[in-house]
Amino acid sequence: MRDSGLSELVRLGANESAFGPSPKAVEVMAAALPHLWWYGDPESYELREALAAKHDCSIEQIVVGSGIDDLMGLAVRAFVPPGGRALTTAGSYPTFNYHVTGYGGALSFAPYRDDGTVDLDALVEIARRERPQVLYLANPDNPSGSFAARARVQAFYEALPHDTLLFLDEAYGDFVDPGDILPAHLEDRLVRTRTFSKAYGMAGARIGYAISSERNVQTFQKIRLHYGVNRNAQVGALASLADPAFHASVVRETAVAREAYYALGTELGVPTLPSLTNFVLFDCGSVARANRVMAELLKRGVWIRKPAVAPLDRYVRVSAGTAPMRAAFAQALRDVLAQVPV
Predict the structure, then answer these.
(1) Which domain holds residue 331?
(2) Are residues 296 and 225 part of one domain?
(3) C-alpha separations of 300 from 52, 118, 307 in Å
(4) Where are the beta strands (DSSP E) in the chain?
(5) Which tens digit of pLDDT belongs to each residue from 318-340?
(6) DSSP assignment of 216-240, as one string?
(7) How far is residue 332's CA from residue 142's CA, in Å, rounded to a whole number?
(8) In degrees to the nearest 10, what's the CA dihedral of 9, 12, 17, 21?
């Protein structure tokens, strides 16, 4: 908004949930505001109890942080020593890379496949050769939206060196059928993370959690910022878990939005990539056109983003919006494509 001089934008650039948080969460968070002078529970005990019940594990196997970004930092600090190595996909969610670099580690990268999906075989090959302390995998992936099915991820996990920890970022796991998600492995070499930022609509509250072995959770508990989780985020997250009907409605509406984007892409002759997230990629044909489409949409008050690394850098990424938001985007895209043919 500062760059464009606009007073408001159609926000389709950050993969936030346009469907908002649960009304029950809003209610309890509003009621808790007079107690904002209290610190939150440094152990997030009640929330961890509820999460342990949700994931059929013990409370000692759950740690809560201020979003997955925070938990990435804990994993890097705990398991990648200065001069150590971490492995990821070039162009995947970049915050993990910032932590590795900031804490003195080195990065190795595998490229995406030509179709924009994560190359699990290449990651295994590099891991076996370079023996990284941590391998980062987002599944479903950001920014591609692609998803590796349960059996494929199981085989990938088993093929990794047993001294490499897999950091499995499942921020978009709520949009996947639970039967397709990797089953629970509460082992020292696996950390799985989830968030309340996406399907639960609480991105601004900054709260997420990791599921792992008791050893790993104890390590995180030693080094995490103990009052780093917002008190209102804790009560809101707990209320969100108690409103499965709202959560299910967001998952359904997100699927409707994806289908609408696929149809729009077909109508306009702009190919889309299949997605199991709350966003869809539109193929603009070249990096230059993608940049121009993004800039022209911003002039029309529609904010989107785009991947930065090939082969996905010729795409623009559009978050799932409400029906009015999708209509505004569709009209703006039609106008832009009339000016900037793809």
Answers:
(1) 10-19+245-339
(2) no
(3) 45, 33, 21
(4) 10-11, 62-65, 85-89, 106-110, 134-138, 165-169, 190-195, 208-211, 279-283, 302-303, 315-319
(5) 999 999 999 999 999 999 999 98
(6) HHHHHHHHS-TT-S-HHHHHHHHHH
(7) 24
(8) 0
Is 1 part of a structural domain of the chain? no
Q: How many CA atoms lie within 13 A of 244 on its CB side?
A: 2
Looking up tokens 């692609």 gives: 146
**What whole-number distance in Å separates Cα of residue 37 and Cα of residue 43?**
18
Bridge partners for 63 per DSSP:
210
Tens of pLDDT, residues 129-187: 999 999 999 999 999 999 999 999 999 999 999 999 999 999 999 999 999 998 888 99
Residue 296: how many CB atoms within 10 A of its CB? 17
What is the enclosing helix (H) or strand (E) of 70?
helix 68-79
For residue 140, whether the previous peptide bond is cis, meaning omega lies within 30 degrees of 0, is yes
3-state class (DSSP) for residue 134: strand
Under 8 Å between Cβ of 133 and 270:
no
All residues at 6 or more sequence positions from 31 whose CB lies less than 8 Å from its CB, including other chains: none
pLDDT at 7: 85
What is the count of structural domains for the chain? 2
Residues 43 and 27 in one domain: yes
